[in-house]
Amino acid sequence: MTQKSHVRPGESHGYAIAVFAMRLLSTLCLVLISLPALPQSRVDVFVAYERAFALKAQETNTKTAFLSYMADSAIVFVNGKPTLAKPFWTQAPESPAKLIWGPAFADASRSGDMGYTTGPWYVEVDGKRVANGHYNTVWSTQRPDNRLRFLIDAGVQHPAPSDERIPENVTYTTIRSLGSSDQFADLLRLDRQFADEIIVQGVAKAYAVHLSGEARLYRPNQLPYGSATAIKQLFETESSMRFRPVGGQLALSGDLGFVYGTYQSAQGPVRDGSYLRIWKHEIGNGWRLVLEVFNDAAPKP
Fold this sequence. Notes:
single chain; alpha+beta; Nuclear Transport Factor 2, Chain: A; 2 domains; 5-stranded mixed β-sheet; 31% helix; DUF4440; DUF4440 domain-containing protein
């Protein structure tokens, strides 16, 4: 996460932990047996892995958790630059700070080999919360054991939200996807076309053509944009960027994929960083942008 249940009234903390542990164990057992065929069950697999990932960070530390759940080719954004996760986290010092997070929304490809989750995170030092934000993790099955590992992890830090709790329940997509014969090269071409349209047509017009009805946009130091009204307000003030895709991947079913790369301001003060876009091939709409994250580099002195 950019740096990424609860006890019900009347319940004891120990009882809540026991209930959560039993539910997590039950879900993980299903994961180990097979990949379920039903759409919601496919998504549940990714939710279970994300929760196990977060639990690992609590039981050990953030460094151990990331090294345990990343693919060898996994990417994280470090100071606005796409960076191989394994070398970065291997060299990172262990920290006493606790990174706590959990999924709030999740979706998966029809083939079940790719999915993503997004949700809030916060950091605690000596029991005191010192930072808040949102994370976005893209997961994929890895050969030869077909275990899930994350391919990219990107997020933002932002002010404390009105509800600071990690959600107990996860929202699933309401928009069904449609498989396609597209290859990653086709998705990359779409991302480049979108980047060109932003420069030629302007931010608002370009996004209006490509944005999904359930899009989520994440910007540094700003709470997530999820509603149509909030997104419209964002585009009224956001300036154009020049984007350069670097990599990504497409699900086997051709209905879900991601592209990541770098950006720089097209005009005005220099602003640069890295971006992540998740695209979904929706029934009746074709390819639509369902999630986008900007991760700014620190201003140059």
